[in-house]
Design brief:
The chain contains 8 helices and no strands. It is an all-alpha fold. The longest helix is centred in the first third of the chain and has 22 residues. The radius of gyration is 22 Å and the shape is elongated. Belongs to the sigma-70 factor family. ECF subfamily. InterPro entries: RNA_pol_sigma-70-like (IPR039425), RNA_pol_sigma-70_dom (IPR014284), RNA_pol_sigma70_r2 (IPR007627), RNA_pol_sigma70_r4_t2 (IPR013249), RNA_pol_sigma_r2 (IPR013325), RNA_pol_sigma_r3/r4-like (IPR013324), WH-like_DNA-bd_sf (IPR036388).
Length: about 190
């Protein structure tokens, strides 16, 4: 990667973090850095300048509302935004929001990718946050046992041995913890 592009990526990451923190001016910086590319993506999919402008506006409105969902560990900012723009444009085609004379809905099929739609990613992120909130509400022993078993992939026997407790106790902690976790998650639905 060229130093200039690395620097631009870091500036964009910083702007995304500022926006997630509620700094309004960051959206202007993000817009200046990305609008041409994102407009091009929308225009290529929609085939109509007005439709592409509307889709682009939807992208930045959604970004304003959901900037805190961006995870720099999972994607570069421009990749994340490009996926967001592509999905928004395809959504407009599928929902029939495209004006007469634009690209027909069938034309969206070749450009659709297998990546989940932005909305699906947001729903998954909300579910994940709910799981962690419910986990945090558990007592320390079951919480740590569940996290170690399910997030680190360790067996109950390994966890019990590492903690110096009987295997039956470990299994009981996990079983009771999972029951409380399930109840908490069902309450939140």
């Amino acid at each position: 990667m060229q130093p200039a592009s690395r620097e631009a990526r870091e500036r964009l990451k910083a702007a995304m973090q500022r926006l997630a923190s509620g700094e309004r001016s960051a959206l202007e910086d993000i817009y200046r850095a990305t609008s041409a590319k994102l407009f091009g993506i929308c225009l290529r999919i929609l085939g109509d300048e007005k439709e592409a402008e509307d889709a682009l506006q939807d992208v930045y409105i959604s970004l304003w509302r959901r900037a805190d969902r961006y995870d720099p560990e999972r994607a570069s900012p421009i990749s994340w935004l490009a996926t967001f723009a592509r999905n928004r444009a395809i959504d407009r085609l599928r929902m029939g929001k495209v004006r007469q004379g634009s690209v027909p809905e069938d034309a969206a099929a070749p450009v659709a990718d297998k990546a989940p739609l932005a909305e699906a990613l947001l729903i998954d992120a909300e579910r994940e946050a709910r799981v962690h909130t419910c986990l945090d509400a558990l007592e320390a022993n079951p919480r740590e046992a569940i996290r170690t078993a399910f997030f680190e992939g360790r067996t109950y026997a390994e966890i019990a041995e590492a903690r110096g407790i009987p295997l039956g106790t470990m299994k009981s902690w996990v079983r009771r913890g999972l029951m409380k976790l399930k109840a908490c998650l069902e309450k939140g639905e």
